[in-house]
Structure formats: C-alpha cells, structure tokens
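Narrative of accomplishments. A recurring question from our advisory board has been how the design workflow behaves on a single, concrete structure rather than in aggregate. To address it, we present the structure tokens for one chain from the evaluation set, followed by the sequence designed for it. No filtering or post-editing was applied between the two.
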C-alpha cells in the first residue's frame, strides 16, 4: 500500500514533465518570434535561426531576391511570427468586419498562396513554414519583376507591389495611400540596414 502511495506522486511529476516537453516542442514548431533586439540585427537573427539563413540563401539562389530584402519584407509583414494574422477591424467599434485571409510569416492571402502552390508544384507548402514562405516571397518577387519591371533589389517599389499586387501597382493604387508609401520606405531602410550588417558578418 505504501509503495502505491509513493508511485502516484512520481507518475504525476512524470506527466507534468511530459506536458512541459510537449509545450516547448509546440512553441518551437509554431515559430515563436525572436526578441525585438535580435530582429534588428540580421547577423544575430541568422545566428539564432540558422535554418532561416539557409532558406533565405536558397531563395536568393533560386529567385535572385537578396536575403536582406526578403528578411525586411517578412519583418514588416509578421515580425517573424509564424501564425500572424491581420488585426480584426470593427465598424463603429462594435460590428466586426470580415477578416482578411492573410496569414503566416509573409501574410500571403489564400488566393495568392494557392496560385504559388499551383505554379511551383509546392502543394504541401505552408504559410507558417519559414522555408516555404522564403520561397514564396522569392517567387512572388519574380512574378512582380516580370509583370512590372521592378528589380528584386528595389525594396521600396517591390514592397508596394507586394502589398498591392502587380496589377494594383500598375494601376497606381498605392499613389493615394501615403501610409503605405511610408511603410514601404521603412521596409527599404530596414533592408539597407540588414544589407550593411550582412556584409559585415560574411553574407
């Protein structure tokens, strides 16, 4: 009887330990974002997430989009949060508006993501998988380049087209959106800073 009483706490501790291991594994798999200080330095970011660097390099070799440009776009879209979604907006502060389908590291919408999967054959690609999103951004940058003539290294215009889509960019839909132009400028400055950092750490 005494032995049975001693065994119960041991089993309880084992269950708690297993739950903690599973929780840590879940957080790691879902891509908890790095600290903001790490996000501000591309070398530190790549040191902390070595698989991200490999994915960014692979995308550059395949689609010619520079690593600093790709990483600056992902930072703006999700702050490196794998499960990022747009903030829900409300009419009159009460009635919820339909939420955009944008999701994941690159905030790709359902339709654009399905097009990427179809055109590249990446049927199993996921928007919360960093490697898949790096390839997606490379592919989309190439689509933008072919459709608009924007160089994949021109972060400012590339981000405008990334946000508005190639057709929207050609129509000039961004011209009446001063806020979007401001965001694109911020992304461009971050890409420039990332490029200087990357050059110093052997990029």
């Amino acid at each position: 009887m005494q032995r049975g009483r001693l065994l119960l706490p041991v089993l309880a501790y084992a269950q708690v330990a297993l739950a903690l291991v599973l929780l840590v594994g879940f957080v790691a798999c879902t891509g908890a974002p790095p600290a903001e200080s790490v996000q501000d330095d591309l070398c530190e970011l790549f040191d902390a997430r070595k698989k991200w660097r490999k994915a960014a390099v692979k995308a550059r070799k395949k689609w010619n989009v520079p690593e600093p440009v790709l990483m600056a776009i992902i930072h703006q879209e999700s702050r490196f949060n794998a499960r990022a979604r747009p903030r829900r907006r409300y009419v009159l502060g009460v009635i919820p508006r339909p939420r955009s389908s944008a999701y994941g590291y690159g905030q790709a919408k359902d339709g654009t993501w399905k097009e990427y999967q179809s055109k590249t054959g990446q049927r199993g690609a996921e928007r919360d998988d960093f490697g898949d999103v790096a390839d997606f951004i490379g592919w989309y940058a190439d689509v933008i380049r072919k459709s608009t003539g924007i160089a994949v290294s021109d972060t400012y215009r590339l981000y405008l087209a990334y946000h508005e889509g190639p057709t929207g960019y050609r129509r000039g839909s961004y011209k009446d959106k001063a806020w979007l132009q401001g965001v694109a400028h911020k992304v461009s400055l971050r890409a420039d800073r990332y490029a200087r950092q990357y050059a110093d750490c052997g990029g």
